[in-house]
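Annex B. Sample input.
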Amino acid sequence: MSEGGLPAKTIDNYALVVKMVVASAVDKEGEEIYPRKWNPDFIDMPLVLKAKQNTPCFSPEVMSGLAAWKYERERMVFILCGATGLRIGEALGLEIDKHISPDFLSISIEQKARHGKVEERLKTASALRKVDIHPTIAAMLQEFVGERKSGFLFCTRNGRPLGSSNILRRHLHPALKQLGYINPFTGTSKAGNHAFRRFRNTFLRNHTDCPEGLQKFWMGHAGESMTDLYDKIKEDEMFRREWAERCGFGFKLPSVVPNVPRCTENGGNEKAAEAA
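Annex B, continued. Sample output.
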């Protein structure tokens, strides 16, 4: 894998699958049949250096540019992910009648979409949460939904959830290239959907006085200790919404929203989304 040019983290992830398969073989008592203590030095595993991992984070200027992307549906994906820190699968798994509050000021993360299919299993237990939205973003989201009462928030013509790879290849990468973005880790104009999440986390941590427990709750991060304050944050909707408005979202929205004719937007892009 090293000779094939795979990065250290990818090799580490593939090796983890092998370890899980070996550990999954258990006897009638639930004990491992092939217990192993893996020695990374002996098996010559590459060292994963966090400083060299491809973990780009968008700047406010780049986020402002993405918020002006010409296609309405994908533009709303960019804005929502940047303003909330949702994982892309969580955003694509949202259903209007099930996960969005009537006033559009909060969303419930209960499932995700992967490869156009819904998975109720989230990445971690902490990912099951409510995320509160700034009123300006909520108003944009409500306008985007329009008269729709049900179905996926971001869907193809036949009602299926969008594919994340379609958003990445056909919209995010072209938009970043158009903005002149350079990934500091790869030197290219490409970045993954997770960069939206890093932007939100960095903005809350470095540019607001958001309570740490609330930040972790919104981002779906596990707390180091389950304090009383952290528990109450989950239940205090008014408190969370006040902080959502107070914190803001950290990038500019276009004064005049660009768009393309809906027939053009839904033509090639819908076919591409369904193919993805």
